[in-house]
Amino acid sequence: MRSTKDLNHNKAEQWWRKTDFRQMENITGYRQFEFDPEDGYQAFVDACNNYWNSLSRDGKTCIWEKFAGTVNN
């Protein structure tokens, strides 16, 4: 049986993949307009994903709880 911690981490990962540019800006502090639009802002997305991937499992879950509004008691 999977722990609640593992389930929350998986939910956080799924949530991140659906996060829009505005939310990514709020989370990472990066600004879309600072990146080249030529490639559809792929460099912005890559930078945000690198930020996300640098976080610990707990860090990702904490951000998910804060920004997705799903705090588990």
Q: What report would you give on this structure?
A:
- The protein is built from four helices and no strands.
- The chain has one domain.
- It is elongated, with a radius of gyration of 13 Å.
- The chain has 73 residues and is an all-alpha fold.
Number of helices: 4
Written as H for each helix and E for each strand, in order along the chain, the element string is HHHH
Shape: elongated
Biggest sheet layout: none
Low-confidence stretches: none
Concise summary:
The protein has helices spanning about 5-15, 20-30, 40-55, 55-70. With about 70 residues, the protein is an all-alpha fold.
List keywords for this structure.
64% helix; 4 helices; mainly alpha; elongated; 73 residues
Topology, please?
Blueprint: H1 4-17, H2 21-28, H3 42-54, H4 57-68
Helix pairs in contact: 1-4, 2-3
